[in-house]
């Protein structure tokens, strides 16, 4: 799972880099904006999923949450790019904002608030460290520290 | 009335700081609040530290100028808290638990077993911190001058003295508990002003219609800056949120890692409420000007003060001015703590030594940082704004790959981390300097911070891949933390 997510992350970063590379080359093809829209959300969602992976597995509920989040956020950007500009006099409003603006602001700025924190809380127990895990981390650090101290002492002893 | 509200506010801050100072007995108390902070305290303090005076003054002014495009700076707040929780929260808290780490460069040094990576990260933190503190002290000087009529220079000095008093004495412990009070003031002030903003323009729909008739691009999804720049904001402020040391280091402070369960919800709601003013005032002022009710503003930064003056009761105006001071002071205190830790803890370790009395030298460093930053704020005029601008981008490009990805990918190498930090530093400093002195202009829509972040990410992956064969194995406890 981590391998797949890392590949998606690298691919997303490359998509983000495309419009900048095109701009420096003096080109500005419109498709690079779509690449940016997909890439930016790909970076965020793949990073989120990477952080949520435990023992190389991602709970099924989170797979759907992250997939849905990506479709929602990237989709909102893509739709706003694809729809014709109609923000002049008499343009349609949705919940008080021009249509394209409403799709972006409510789609990306509001809907995730109602989903992500709850997805995190609902899957929290399954991925929380137990007291045993905490003890294992502390013991591992003590072993590492002891080994380092030993390594530092030994060369001095040899020199003596 | 405004002066009275502000005075009451400063007295409360002083009382909280005095109480917290009595509890500061060790370097751990000073830098990470003794790792004894509860969830509510953590969430509100993080929110207060995240939002500087920009959210109350510069932000609404930016919305007034470039329209909806400016909202892309705060839009990632809907996802960035959950992102931080999944990617960093538990791992950072565990690193603090297992190794007693204080700082973000500490975590980078431990992850890669590299003093060079830790030193480079600490250097980047220091550069950005001085710029950030100077910018915020200048803004605080403006607010104090506006309330008490002290003049700008005296305002800066008074503001610096107030923050120094509780930061030097109580460190982050005093900062955390004053942040809780200050964060609550900020959220309350923002929600009330948003109500008055919507009422002043006859509701969101009416405001939209008025602005659309005068300036269609303003209300478009990308504002006046176009899709490339708007989505670049979203990228830098979304992904870059994982690299903000004054925010991320607060994960070390949580008393119990299991309290993190509801952290994203609390933090996201607190942040959303506090950012209502940012959008509401900027759009409402544009509507009032477009509708002919108000004359165009001479300076965009006047959007919030003018709105408060004309459309809110005096008590609310006093509360908001206190909220602005609160936002600035909370942010500056966090930066002082982060900068002092870089000076007294990370750089000595990077140079192969260790400071004996970190609490004492932490206090000395906090004082030195504040004095240097106040000097920069007083002496350099508009250069201060330039220093503040690249702070977020510099943190993002130098810290996100090495820390956020590095703690979730065991294939990341020391060389990759060092190369990405160096790339972030170089691209940001060179790009921003050339741009500020007008020696080179980037193509339309391309920002230095986005360019630095994407470059450092690509360098991180490429160098890690190229050096993967000679990579050293991870320490056993770091491996366990990464698998947690």
Descriptive account of the structure:
By secondary structure, chain A is mainly alpha-helical. Chain A has helices at residues 2-24, 31-52, 60-82, 99-109, 111-122, 124-127, 131-159, and strands at 93-94, 97-98. In chain A, a hairpin with a 2-residue loop joins strand 1 (93-94) and strand 2. Chain A is elongated, with a radius of gyration of 24 Å. With 484 residues, chain B is an all-alpha fold. Chain B contains 21 helices and no strands. Chain B has helices at residues 2-22, 27-32, 39-50, 58-66, 77-99, 104-112, 115-148, 152-200, 204-214, 216-219, 226-239, 245-248, 263-274, 276-290, 303-311, 314-350, 358-380, 383-405, 414-436, 448-466, 476-483. The chains are: A mainly alpha (160), B mainly alpha (484). Chains A and B meet through helix 1, helix 2, helix 3, strand 2 and helix 4 of A and helix 5, helix 9, helix 10, helix 11 and helix 13 of B.
Layout: helices, strands, pairs:
The complex is a heterodimer of chains A (160) and B (484).
Chain A: H1 2-24, H2 31-52, H3 60-82, E1 93-94, E2 97-98, H4 99-109, H5 111-122, H6 124-127, H7 131-159
Helix pairs in contact in A: 1-2, 2-3, 3-4, 3-5
Chain B: H1 2-22, H2 27-32, H3 39-50, H4 58-66, H5 77-99, H6 104-112, H7 115-148, H8 152-200, H9 204-214, H10 216-219, H11 226-239, H12 245-248, H13 263-274, H14 276-290, H15 303-311, H16 314-350, H17 358-380, H18 383-405, H19 414-436, H20 448-466, H21 476-483
Helix pairs in contact in B: 1-8, 1-16, 3-8, 3-13, 3-16, 4-14, 5-13, 5-21, 6-7, 7-8, 7-16, 7-17, 7-18, 7-19, 8-13, 8-14, 8-16, 8-17, 9-14, 16-17, 18-19, 18-20, 19-20
